[in-house]
C-alpha cells in the first residue's frame, strides 16, 4: 500500500447475516484526489465509509487510511480523519 495513497482497499467484504453489503471491493484514492461513492440504496456505500472511518468492523480484506488500518486506530489517526 503506497505512500501516495490516502486510502487503499483490497478485497473488502462485509455481510450482515446472509446479506452481503460489500463483496470484494478494491479501490485506491491518492492524496489530494477527490473521490465519490455513488450507487443505489443498499449498494454498501455507508458500510464502506464506516469501515474506512473505523466505526464498523470488516469481515475480510485489507484497508489502509492515511497509512494505518482503521480497525486499530490511534488517537493521532482519529484527529486526521475528518
TrEMBL record:
Protein's recorded name: ABC transporter domain-containing protein
Q: Which UniProt keywords apply?
A: Antibiotic resistance, ATP-binding, Nucleotide-binding, Transport
Q: How does it sit in the membrane?
A: Peripheral membrane protein
Residues covered by the ABC transporter domain: 23-78
Q: Please name the PANTHER family in this protein's record.
A: ABC TRANSPORTER ATP-BINDING PROTEIN
One GO-annotated biological process of the protein: response to antibiotic
What's the short name of a Pfam family annotated to this entry? ABC_tran
Q: What is the lineage of its organism?
A: Bacteria, Bacillati, Actinomycetota, Actinomycetes, Micromonosporales
| InterPro entries, sorted | ABC_transporter-like_ATP-bd, ABC_transporter_ATP-binding, P-loop_NTPase
Amino acid at each position: 500500500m503506497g505512500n501516495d495513497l490516502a486510502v487503499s482497499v483490497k478485497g473488502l467484504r462485509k455481510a450482515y447475516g446472509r446479506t452481503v453489503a460489500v463483496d470484494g471491493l478494491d479501490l485506491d484514492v491518492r492524496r489530494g484526489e477527490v473521490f465519490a461513492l455513488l450507487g443505489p440504496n443498499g449498494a454498501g456505500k455507508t458500510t464502506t465509509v464506516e469501515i474506512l472511518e473505523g466505526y464498523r468492523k470488516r469481515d475480510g480484506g485489507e484497508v489502509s487510511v492515511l497509512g494505518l488500518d482503521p480497525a486499530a486506530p490511534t488517537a493521532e489517526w482519529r484527529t486526521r480523519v475528518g
